[in-house]
Amino acid sequence: MMLSRQSHLDFFASYDSPIVNITADCRCHDFVASAKTQRVPPFAVLLHALATTSMLVEPFRRRLMGGRLTRVEHLNVSYTVIGADNNVNFSTFQFHEPFAQFLACYLADREEARQATYLRRASMENRDYLFVTCLPWLAFTAIQHPIARFGDCSIPNIAVGRFKREGEDVSFPIAIQAHHGLVDGLHISEFITTLAGVLNVAAAEICDA
């Protein structure tokens, strides 16, 4: 059952910018080396883990649609790709929990996004999305995502940065932006902790593959 957040939504309804945005480091087992050994894009492993975590941490399944609180049952992942002429484009596909199925969708749609000569836009008939940006060149300490409608910013935006190896682990900056009427700082902390655990499992599973 979805815990009521109506009082929180009412409180933030009058805010010009009802978002919470926290940047922190995420440290986990070195899934990057494990992925490269199996010739799997490390970002595909990370993207799958981000989507998995968003479905495990309940507040990240909350969305607003037409002023109504809803819950994500079937997730679509949308992330940035460097496309034609080094301009940003978007790859969007349905999340599948089995990694092999997810990877096939990831690779196919990534190629379409890279080759597209137009800006690919996700259908916004619902809010069952997770938006992700990867900045592998930067160890950033903060980021601000553009938002079209502040009153309807219920789709979480997540940015991840450059990987840094630390012994047998890897760390990277992660920025999580969400509607504060739906998500609190505690939930963001829970998300990052859960993500590290999911990546730890992924690193071990890839090694055993």
From TrEMBL:
Pfam families the UniProt entry points to: CAT
GO molecular function: chloramphenicol O-acetyltransferase activity
SUPFAM superfamilies: CoA-dependent acyltransferases (SSF52777)
Family matches, as InterPro entries: CAT-like_dom_sf (IPR023213), Cmp_AcTrfase (IPR001707)
Superkingdom: Bacteria
SMART domains: CAT (SM01059)
Name recorded for this polypeptide: Chloramphenicol acetyltransferase
